[in-house]
Design a protein that fits this description.
The protein is mostly helical. It folds into 2 domains: 1-68, no CATH class; 70-209, no CATH class. Helices cover 79% and strands 3% of the residues. A two-stranded antiparallel ribbon has the order 1-2. A hairpin with a 2-residue loop joins strand 1 (110-112) and strand 2. It is globular. The termini are far apart. The model is unreliable at 1-9 (pLDDT under 50).
């Protein structure tokens, strides 16, 4: 039984994803090192790199823990995780790091002593989970697709997306907003919405761009 459990958990590991992520981590550390060597205001290079490595370790631990949770429980927890993310993003508007805001112009960081945290990074995970939940539940309920059901799905996706974009706008973080829009676009394309809607929407964004 124990061997069967180990085999089941091993099958849940996508090794085709692990290698690119590992390479991206190495590239991230190398890029950070190069940036720090040209930053006279950050003399403690080893400390900054150490914090980055710590985040990688915490990320690995989080992945291992999440892998032990059954999918049905993740689905049930998703609305609460999304709601908690919105609450944290809202709190950030009042309790943001003034020092970081003065240097970057964005109110998107918490500070706990020498430790800083950007909640929008965690919100990306919650947002992806919530979009996935909305699309999955809609497609299960509406197996017969038409323009009306597709329009309803778009409305549901926008209802999840607009509060996040409003909070990011208030934080004055345009770069992060583009990331969330890219996430929305990816899920939008993969959600099964008719190309009669997808093509005009893409064309409109291209024209606006």
């Amino acid at each position: 039984m124990e061997n069967s459990r180990i085999k089941t958990n091993d099958n849940r590991i996508d090794y085709g994803v692990i290698l690119p992520v590992f390479l991206l981590c190495l590239i991230g550390v190398a890029s950070l090192y190069v940036a720090l060597t040209h930053d006279p205001n950050n003399p403690n290079m080893l400390r900054t790199l150490g914090f980055q490595a710590l985040w990688y370790v915490l990320g690995i631990i989080a992945v291992i823990i999440i892998m032990q949770i059954k999918s049905k429980w993740l689905w049930k927890l998703t609305p609460y995780i999304y709601g908690a993310g919105l609450a944290v993003m809202l709190a950030l508007l009042k309790f943001y790091d003034r020092t970081m805001a003065a240097s970057t112009g964005s109110k998107n960081w918490f500070r706990f002593g020498a430790f800083t945290l950007q909640p929008s990074e965690l919100m990306k995970i919650a947002y992806i989970m919530m979009l996935a939940l909305v699309v999955t539940q809609h497609n299960v309920k509406h197996r017969e697709r038409d323009l009306k059901t597709d329009g309803l799905l778009i409305a549901k996706m926008l209802a999840v997306t607009i509060p996040v974009l409003i909070l990011i706008t208030l934080q004055n973080d345009f770069g992060t907003m583009l990331v969330f829009l890219a996430i929305f676009g990816g899920v939008f394309l993969m959600s099964g919405i008719s190309w009669r809607i997808v093509v005009p929407v893409i064309a409109a964004f291209v024209i606006l761009g």
